[in-house]
Amino acid sequence: MKILSAEFIKSCEKPEQFPRDGLSEVAFVGRSNVGKSSLLNSLLHRRGLAKVSRTPGKTCTANFFRVVTGDPLLKSFYWVDLPGYGYAKVAKSVQAQWGPMINGYLTERQELMGILLLVDARGVERHDVATFAWLRTLGLRVIVVATKVDKLSRAERRGSMVAIRGSLDVPGGTELILYSSVTHEGRDELWRAIRKLLSVES
Ligand code: GTP
Ligand code: MG
Prior knowledge:
alpha/beta
């Protein structure tokens, strides 16, 4: 994918602050520390565009990035890096703030074309299972991305795919892509899936 520009636009704590120019959006959800910010940087061939945290739960706002591609079908769109969720170390007060915000965003945002659900390739957790089921009940199109696959051997990868499909109960038509933000494995495959997501009329 040819990226002409990728630019951080703003961090929003409240829905009133979301951009209003009507561009289509793709959002990332996933447990804190699963690698959302790293994935964004890897996809866009940028280092440090989205802040990679050493302390889990650092991202507490919805971060909008405008991407302009050389693809005539895609043109430009927003990436939305959403706060991590389900991490026990995040303060209760922070959870109380971003829980309802993500909820509102996912259920009400017209521009949202689909979601990337990031799970750790080494194993899904209960919260991932619940989130995937919930996204499906909202009628959102979801791509499941298994991150940090560089930490697995070839043999383990195959097992990981089967285990994730099984525990999330991923239906046949839903894409499950193994990804590494270190080696960029899975990048072309994920771009193809995202392109499809954004090209579909809502
Ligand atoms: P929050 O913003 O806190 O929700 O976290 P996040 O989901 O954005 O995770 P982030 O991208 O900040 O990455 C968390 C940690 O995992 C960092 O130490 C990254 O370097 C590491 N990491 C992310 N992706 C990969 C990957 O593909 N492979 C490996 N080996 N490490 C990764
Ligand atoms: Mg992050």
